[in-house]
């Protein structure tokens, strides 16, 4: 349902995925999952009413983190509950299952520079609201499409909460987890590349595909190149980022061209930019000599990636 905000390479996000459910389901009434980039660092639900974090019980920050988590999660619980029932009533909905969800968090830019606080709300997966808080200007921008507009007193109160509670706690948790999880969150794993070619008999076309896999972090730029320029003509498909089972990612792009064009005087290549690479990796579709070279590059990257510890991602919903 949600897509995280696009932030510059080298920045980091702490995002909370909160879900409140009206009606009978096998799930807790309220759940929250906290993620720093791709690593789960928090979990809370209304059944246990306890925040589970990645800190050990004897951590010097444990009690402080528990207090901060409870403050944030209970506020989320009551806020989402009130909004969910309010929307159910004004929309004159039946007594079935209804879901109110929130994605909220903060970013830390390069050089430890604080970014914005983000929030998105959705009710039954259809109507959405969003908001941002800028700590520099101390301004809160909210797009209210689900509930009635706030009066001045309400606006001042919410702005105070963002400035003095939500923002400082979120930033503190993000920085602390980045320090604790450097081996996983801050690691860089080089991509492995496969070039594929498939003849489509029905259309008399050739599909050339660049598959890039096994890389971390998720930020990557994959471009199919024709004669030194990004391929804009023809039929380009793919480009969706997908998770692997080991915590790394994969992406592929394909281009449909005619058989005549393939054997013409055109050069096709796959250009990859990733934080783990010092320069653009440009691999050309072509001769067996080239293919052997690419295989060597891929094997070299694979051996490097095995040196790094890859963690398993917990199963999380993608609404």
Write a short abstract of this structure.
By secondary structure, the chain is an alpha+beta fold. It is built from five helices and 17 strands.
What's the SSE blueprint?
Blueprint lengths: L11 E11 L7 E7 L2 E7 L6 E2 L8 H29 L7 E12 L3 E11 L3 E8 L4 E5 L8 H29 L1 H4 L6 E9 L4 E11 L5 E6 L2 E2 L4 E4 L3 E2 L5 E10 H4 L5 E6 L7 E4 L3 H20 L12
Antiparallel strand pairs: 1-2, 1-5, 2-3, 3-4, 5-6, 6-7, 7-8, 9-10, 10-15, 11-12, 11-16, 13-15, 14-15, 16-17
Protein name: Ig-like domain-containing protein
Keywords: Glycoprotein
Organism: Sinocyclocheilus rhinocerous
What structural keywords apply?
5 helices; disordered C terminus; 5-stranded antiparallel beta sheet; 27% helix; 17 strands; Immunoglobulin-like; alpha+beta; Murine Class I Major Histocompatibility Complex, H2-DB, Chain A, domain 1; elongated; disordered N terminus; 8-stranded antiparallel beta sheet
